[in-house]
Amino acid sequence: MKSFKNINAGALIKLRFLESEMEIARVCNFFNCSEEEIEKMFDSKSIDTDILLKWSKLLEYDFFRIYSQHLILFSPQSNAYSGNKEKPSNMPQFRKNIYTKEVIDFITGLITSGEKNIGQVVEKYSIPKTTLHRWIVKYQNHEKRIHKEYNTSNINN
After folding, report:
1. In the chain, what are the domain boundaries?
2. Dihedral sign from CA coordinates of 11, 1, 16, 99
3. How far apart are CA 2 and CA 72, in angstroms?
4. How far apart are CA 88 and CA 86, in angstroms?
5. Tens digit of pLDDT for each residue in 23-80?
6. Would you state the CATH architecture of domain 9-74?
């Protein structure tokens, strides 16, 4: 998946299904439906959350995380300093600024490939410049370490 912006749940489920090499009969039995109904799910851009949860369990893949990544990248951050304070909520609260390895790789890939510069990433994804610089340094150091370890292991072999 190249972008978390446009999500096609059915296509992603089909891709994971094909990777798993699972028999279609097992899927039909699990969902208690026909092969045609499974194909309709594969063709659907969006999937009911109960069904998506079942697919996640059956295919052992967290499809919801794709939507979480979309929210991290494309929804505006709340402004803690604005006068518009939210009412207390009984809903679970999550920190928006928790970035997964996949998101970090995606963002640093945009910068290192030259597709976007740091200013464009800051503007589009609202990631602080200091965070981006830290990721780039860490990413470059990680790449150098892997390259060094690879070269050292080849010399010793």
Report:
1. 9-74, 101-156
2. negative
3. 16
4. 6
5. 999 999 999 999 999 999 999 999 999 999 999 999 999 998 888 888 777 766 555 4
6. Orthogonal Bundle (1.10)
User: CA torsion angle for 8, 64, 97, 140 (degrees, to 10)?
Assistant: -70
Please check whether residue 27 is in contact with residue 38, taking contact to mean a CB–CB distance below 8 angstroms. yes
Q: Among 109, 155, 156, which Cα is nearest to 132's? A: 109
Of 141, 74, 136, 60, which is closest to residue 105 (Cα–Cα)? Answer: 136
Write out pLDDT tens, residues 57-70.
Answer: 999 999 988 888 88
Phi first, then psi: give them for residue 147, nearest 5 degrees: -60, -45
